[in-house]
Amino acid sequence: MRNDKNNRGRKNTPQYRINRQIRVPEVRVVGDGIEAQVLPTREAQRLADEQGLDLVEISPNAQPPVCRIVDYSKFLYQQKKHQKELKAKQVKIEVKEIRFGPQTDEHDYNFKLKHAREFLADGNKVKAYVFFRGRSILFKEQGEVLLLRFANDLEEYGKVEQMPKLEGKRMIIFISPKKVPTKAKVNDDETEASNEPKKEKKAPQQKARKEYTGPFVEGEDF
After folding, report:
1. pLDDT, tens digit (0-9, with 9 covering 90-100), for 186-208
2. Packing angle between helix 140-153 and helix 106-121, nearest 10 degrees?
3. Residue 136 near residue 102, CB atoms below 8 Å
4. Cα–Cα distance between 54 and 56 in angstroms, integer?
5. Which of 89, 126, 96, 121 is nearest to 188 (CA)?
6. How many Å apart are CA 146 and CA 161, to the nearest integer?
7. Potential cystine with 173: which of 97, 105, 126, 147 (Cβ 3.0-4.6 Å)?
8. Side-by-side strand order, sheet with 158-167
9. Which residues fall within 8 angstroms of residue 118, CB to CB, at 6 or more apart?
10. CB burial readout 74-99, b (16+ within 10 A) else e
11. pLDDT tens per residue, range 93-116
């Protein structure tokens, strides 16, 4: 349906120029069931009028500008739908925090290391920090060593974005995820693939035993 009257009353400038708003001498016309061709703008507008549709300028910087013959309302709806789909596909990277003490024991360290691997595998960043309380700030070198060890143990899963840095009572390190799949995931895939042929080999052996219907004689192997 034509949208000239509706667009005149709009306060905001329309995203696309349509119909009589298109003032270039000629345009390249595209559309469903329409052969792409360069036409004088008046001729393109007449073609749109005959179909009860709109002439929408979709590529104003092309030479000549590209216009689509389409229902403008439906066109805007499809554009909004496409934008929503793109946003839904975008991965939101979150920053996951992991806190250590300057004298974290081995069990607690491994527990937090496991969580950090999961965070990085999911595409999130890790902000690990050692919190110094009171006089424990005297052990800041020990905290730095802990964070460097942490980064080294996560080398398969992430890369250091910021080296350990003391900010107030915290020594912080940032680790961002690697795009390349981790070896653990690759090994899992290879294990699954290697298991498949084993199942196929067992099948014919079972069938061969079922074919024998005669009496069983002791000492003979069928």
Report:
1. 444 444 444 444 444 444 444 44
2. 50
3. yes
4. 6
5. 121
6. 16
7. 147
8. 95-100, 125-131, 170-177, 158-167
9. none
10. ebbeeeeeeeeeeeeeeeeeeebebe
11. 788 999 998 888 999 999 999 999
165 is written with which tokens? 């840095």
Q: Which domains does the chain have, with CATH numbers?
A: 4-87 (3.10.20.80), 95-177 (3.30.110.10)
For 16, other C-beta atoms within 10 Å of its C-beta total: 19
Q: Residue 42 above 60 pLDDT?
A: yes
DSSP-assigned letter for residue 14: P
For the entire predicted model, the pTM comes to: 0.43
Q: What are the helix (H) ranges across the chain?
A: 4-8, 41-50, 72-89, 106-121, 140-153, 183-211
Percent of the chain with pLDDT over 90: 41
**Under a CB-based contact definition with an 8 Å cutoff, are residues 192 and 180 in contact?**
no
Per-position DSSP letters for 177-217, written without gaps between them: EPSSPPHHHHHHHHHHHHHHHHHHHHHHHHHHHHH--S---
92 token code pair: 């939101």
Number of Cβ atoms within 10 Å of the Cβ of 21? 13
**Bridge partners of 66?**
28, 59
Structure tokens at 214: 């005669």
